[in-house]
Every structure is written in C-alpha cells, then in structure tokens.
Amino acid sequence: MPAIQPLSDAQQIVVMGVSGVGKSTVAKGLSTVLGWTYAEGDAFHSEANVAKMHSGTPLTDDDRWPWLRSIGAWMDTRIADGQPSVITCSALRRVYRDLLAEGRPEVRFCHLVAGEDLLAERVGRRANHYMPASLLYSQYDTLEPLDSEESGVEVSVDGTAADVLHRALAALSIPDPRNA
Questions:
Q1: Hey, which residues does 107 pair with through a beta bridge?
Q2: Is there a contact between 68 and 58 (Cβ–Cβ < 8 Å)?
Q3: Which label site among 12, 28, 146, 158 has the fewest CB atoms less than 10 Å from its CB?
Q4: Is the pLDDT of residue 127 over 80?
Q5: What residues contact residue 147 under an 8 Å CB cut-off, 6+ apart?
Q6: Cβ atoms of 25 and 99 closer than 8 Å
C-alpha cells in the first residue's frame, strides 16, 4: 500500500468499491464523525446512465467519463473553498481514479473490499435501487485494485458498520474525534 499522504485543510476522501460494498454507509459515517461535507457519487450520474444500469446494461467508459468529470468538478469546488469532504464513487479502474486525482493532491481513496457472495446477497436484498445484482459481477470483472502508486487504503467490510468505520479511520490515519 502507498504511504499515507498528510492531511490538508481540503482533504477529499473518495470511498470506492463495487456495488453493495457499503460505500454510502461508510462515507456518511466518515462525514458525520469528521464533520465533513458528504456527497453521493451516484447522484452525479446522468438520467441515461441510470436508465442503462436499471435495464441491466453495464456502463461503458464513454458513459462514465462525464460522470467522473462532474465528481471531479464537485471536489474542485470543495478544494477551492478549503472544505474537506467525503464522496462515494465506484472508481473501479485505475484510469478513473487517475482522472479523479489529476491535479488534486488532496484526493485519497478508501477502497472497501468484500467477497462476491456477501455482496450478491446484499445487492439482492436492496429495494428501489437502480443497480441490479446482475451487474455486480461485471463490476468485479472491471475492478482494478489500488496499487502502490495511488494514494489510498483498502478496508475490509467484515463486521459491523461501526467496525468498518473504525478500520477506515485507522487505515486513513485520521484521528477519530470521538476518542479525543
């Protein structure tokens, strides 16, 4: 794993991973504990992307580039305002993460990891979500784990949401203000 970058005033944490891994839960937890701004990356998808996923069709890179650029623009605003934030984004491929981190040394990735069987069960239980369980396996096929040149950490989602949040804070070397 790469060396942890020092925190800046405008730290941007991208909570990443495949569908059902708990990105929103962990990102909301980080945001709440740290008092940082939170955004749901899925909210940046176009209507066409949402319709495509809802129909069970995986997104292509051409579908993803505008979405990723809009997430980057959102982070640029937070950085310019000196405002730390946490945002969710699958960020499955290295080129997607490169785009999100380009010109943004404040960006760090928190890759949530879990086995396919656990996530298939989770995604299958979700109601009213446009991402069907059938697309989970295409996400695993696309996934390129973080490498040593990227600023980020991997965190297992084993255990409770509180366990995962605690591990994420520790892995990111962010002191938990609840323990101060």
A1: 12
A2: no
A3: 158
A4: no
A5: 94
A6: no
Structural domain of 163: 12-173
Concatenated DSSP letters of 39-75? E-GGGGS-HHHHHHHHTTPPPPHHHHHHHHHHHHHHH
Does 80 reside within a domain? yes
Separation of alpha carbons 113 and 117, rounded Å: 12
Average pLDDT score over residue span 4-8: 45
Could you please report the per-residue DSSP string of 31-42?
Answer: HHHHT-EEE-GG
Taking CB atoms within 8 Å and a gap of at least 24, the contacts of 160-163 are 161/22, 161/25, 161/26, 161/29, 162/29
β-strand partners of 12: 85, 107
pLDDT band at residue 4 under the 50/70/90 scheme: very low
What's 171's DSSP letter? H
Confidence of residue 135 (pLDDT cuts 50, 70, 90): low
What is the C-alpha to C-alpha distance for residues 168 and 132, in angstroms, rounded to an integer? 27
pTM: 0.85
Question: Residue 30: which CATH number?
Answer: 3.40.50.300
Q: Which helix (H) or strand (E) holds 94?
A: helix 94-101
Instruction: Name residue 153's amino acid.
Output: V
